[in-house]
Backbone:
């Protein structure tokens, strides 16, 4: 249901943007007029070779950027993105963009040669084949386009591609065998102080770091598939690593087997959507000091310790799936020092702990479903003023656990609890008897983890039953005053 | 001779209706859980709780009752040239075997016709193993009690108390110990404590089979490490066997010299 409205919304946005392009001149856009007629064609050594595609009026670079534009328009969420999109697209249509071909059948034999021959605005077309090259330096604004998925085999010799120019576009490549290093952060694709670039539809296989952004703003990373095969944390690195890079869009990537699937540090106003993050050794998504970010429609499955969101403000987490993050010290989502955020319509199922909340204030958790977790929510006394409402709690071993007996300064209201045994006489949909989601045993366990060995013993069941009949020990204030009688339809 | 007595016993047990009720109880329960719960793994998890309550209780009560009721029969047979030890084993197996068979059959049948996965089968077999061990252990305890106390009220009362002790009070004591010594590393002492109670041991063995053990955090990890090794497995099986051997030897020796 929500997906449909999402598409409609993005279409409207795209139309709005098209209108903006026509109606007012974009800021800082000297070459907005598309003078693509003057396309020239450059091949190395011999100038006679002309391939049919490249003589056409529209250069591949422009065609791709159109695609990217629609893609980006379809995903763009907020105002800031729209503006950068305009500035971005206008600069791309340079007056004289050339196409350089790399491949066995003609053109450059090596990518490095093509890169040094290129100038700003050029397109480098890589034909299918395997290129055994490494440490490719991209220091001018080019588009690198793989045709038929060419492979760059780094052969464990160092970095893959290192990009230091703005607005570089990398698409359709496969990069393999980037070695583990304990002293250098080898990455398949690295952007360093290079903004506005795009990394689209690449396959990164057996790499150390996958895509590494340092001080690279306004980046688009989408539809890439990243795969690593390490088993230990110390010798593996992050799939998509962002440091000090703002306004990134990370969409529809698949990241498997890295240390952290996606790692963000000091990243503002970014959007992470539609990624599939699985079997990473540490966290699926790990982010620190990253304010105003949006995570939506991602799937985090089977990662070592789930997703960790730390020290950030105004984070929006929406429509994500946290599945099977199961293990002795694992959780679906860890919130540590998160404030003023929202967790909306996510699904947590089969995690040891659904959400663990530490020192996180003013987080609104609503319309999520918690299904078959060990603990659905483990909320520490250091968390305040959280609102937990309209969630479904079904089949969890413990619904809510907390480490404080006396105070709960969080508001649980109108949730559906499958363990609720009250009734609804007036038929308003809310139970007439308040529900206390914290079981006595979960309090005992919180103080004395050893007591977990009594899990599922009859003694504990009797204990819980007595507490439910005569609540004396469980926190008085942690009560859902009007529990829902029926599941929230999400 | 044992076989002859056993045969007679079996016929007697199967003729009485309670064993059928016992089979049906497990059969219906497992079947219903399959119908509502779905896959075999979850059924096994739910069955675990029931088995840990029902089997010790049923075995010890049925065992004590059975022996008290068979008093005249035993006296009659002892007038004949039947060796006492043969009679004892015949009597013991004659009750323990049908109980185990009834339980195992009742639980496993729904797994057959629901075509459970291999993994579910593994947990079901573990369930059946634990349940069978508990059955035999508590029948042995019951026999000892019935032979020790001629007064059947006393014997049955004690049987109930013992059952209650192991299912509930013992865990309370463990919790008490955990609270009292919470500032000490308790993994190993608690591990030993759990080895001393067949029901706890059964519960932990089962929990470790199911992925729910991840909930147990560090404790679970310690337990898993211990029970995962051949040594740990050996010790836990040895503990169960000791629980079987001690009451049965005591009962056997009492039976040999008892003046009926």
Residues:
């Amino acid at each position: 249901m929500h997906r449909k409205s999402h598409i409609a919304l993005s279409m409207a946005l795209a139309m709005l943007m098209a209108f903006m392009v026509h109606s007012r001149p974009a800021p800082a856009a000297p070459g907005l007029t598309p003078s693509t007629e003057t396309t020239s064609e450059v091949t190395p050594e011999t100038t006679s070779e002309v391939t049919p595609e490249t003589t056409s009026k529209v250069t591949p670079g422009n065609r791709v950027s159109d695609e990217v534009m629609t893609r980006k328009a379809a995903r763009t969420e907020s105002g800031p993105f729209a503006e950068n999109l305009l500035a971005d697209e206008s600069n791309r249509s340079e007056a004289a963009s050339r196409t350089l071909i790399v491949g066995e059948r003609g053109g450059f034999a090596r990518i490095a040669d093509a890169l040094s021959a290129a100038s700003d605005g050029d397109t480098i077309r890589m034909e299918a084949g395997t290129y055994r090259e490494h440490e490719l330096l991209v220091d001018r604004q080019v588009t690198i386009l793989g045709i038929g998925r060419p492979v760059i085999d780094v052969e464990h010799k160092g970095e893959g591609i290192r990009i230091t120019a703005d607005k570089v576009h990398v698409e359709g490549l496969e990069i393999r065998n980037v070695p583990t290093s304990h002293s250098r952060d080898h990455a398949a694709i690295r952007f360093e102080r290079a903004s506005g670039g795009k990394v689209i539809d690449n396959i990164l296989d057996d790499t150390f770091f996958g895509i590494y952004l340092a001080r690279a703003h306004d980046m688009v990373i989408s539809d890439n598939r990243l795969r690593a095969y390490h088993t230990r944390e110390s010798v593996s690195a992050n799939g998509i690593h962002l440091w000090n890079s703002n306004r990134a869009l990370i969409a529809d990537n698949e990241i498997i087997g890295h240390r952290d699937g996606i790692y963000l540090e000091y990243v503002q106003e970014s959007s992470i959507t539609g990624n599939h993050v699985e079997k990473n050794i540490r966290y699926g998504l790990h982010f620190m000091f990253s304010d105003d970010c949006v995570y939506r429609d991602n799937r985090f499955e089977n990662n070592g310790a789930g997703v960790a969101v730390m020290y950030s403000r105004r984070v929006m987490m929406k429509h994500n799936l946290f599945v099977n993050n199961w293990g002795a010290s694992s959780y679906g989502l860890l919130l540590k020092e998160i404030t003023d955020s929202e967790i909306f319509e996510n699904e947590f199922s089969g995690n040891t702990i659904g959400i663990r909340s530490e020192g996180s204030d003013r987080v609104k958790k609503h319309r999520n479903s918690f299904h078959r977790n060990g603990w659905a929510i483990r909320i520490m006394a250091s968390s305040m003023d959280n609102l937990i409402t309209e969630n479904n709690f079904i089949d969890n071993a413990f619904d809510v656990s907390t480490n404080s007996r006396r105070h709960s300064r969080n508001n649980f209201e109108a949730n559906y609890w499958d363990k609720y045994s009250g009734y609804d006489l007036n038929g308003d949909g809310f139970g007439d008897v308040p529900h206390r989601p914290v079981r006595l045993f979960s309090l005992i366990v919180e103080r004395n983890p050893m007591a977990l060995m009594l899990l599922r013993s009859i003694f504990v069941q009797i204990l819980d039953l007595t507490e439910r009949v005569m609540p004396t020990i469980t926190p008085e204030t942690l009560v859902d005053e009007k529990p829902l009688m029926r599941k929230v339809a999400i | 001779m044992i076989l002859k007595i056993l045969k007679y016993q079996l016929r007697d047990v199967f003729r009485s209706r309670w064993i059928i009720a016992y089979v049906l109880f497990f059969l219906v329960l497992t079947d219903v859980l399959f119908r509502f719960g779905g896959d075999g793994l979850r059924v096994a998890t739910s069955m675990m709780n029931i088995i840990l309550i029902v089997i010790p209780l049923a075995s010890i009560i049925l065992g004590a009752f059975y022996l008290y009721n068979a008093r005249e029969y035993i006296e009659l047979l002892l007038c004949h040239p039947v060796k006492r030890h043969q009679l004892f084993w015949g009597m013991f197996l004659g009750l323990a075997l049908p109980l185990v068979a009834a339980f195992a059959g009742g639980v496993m049948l729904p797994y057959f016709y629901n075509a459970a996965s291999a993994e579910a089968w593994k947990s079901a077999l573990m369930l059946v193993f634990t349940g069978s061990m508990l059955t035999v252990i508590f029948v042995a305890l019951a026999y000892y009690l019935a032979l020790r106390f001629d007064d059947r009220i006393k014997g049955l009362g004690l049987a109930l108390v013992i059952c209650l002790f192991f299912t509930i009070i013992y865990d309370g004591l463990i919790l008490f110990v955990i609270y009292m010594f919470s500032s000490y590393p308790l993994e190993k002492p608690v591990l030993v404590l759990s080895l001393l109670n067949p029901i706890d041991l059964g519960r932990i063995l089962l929990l470790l089979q199911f992925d729910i053990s991840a909930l147990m955090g560090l404790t679970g990890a310690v337990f898993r490490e211990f029970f995962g090794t051949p040594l740990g497995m050996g010790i836990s099986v040895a503990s169960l066997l000791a629980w079987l051997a001690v009451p049965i030897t005591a009962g056997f020796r009492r039976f040999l010299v008892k003046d009926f």
Observations:
- Chain A has seven helices and 39 strands.
- Confidence is low (pLDDT under 50) at residues 18-95 of chain A.
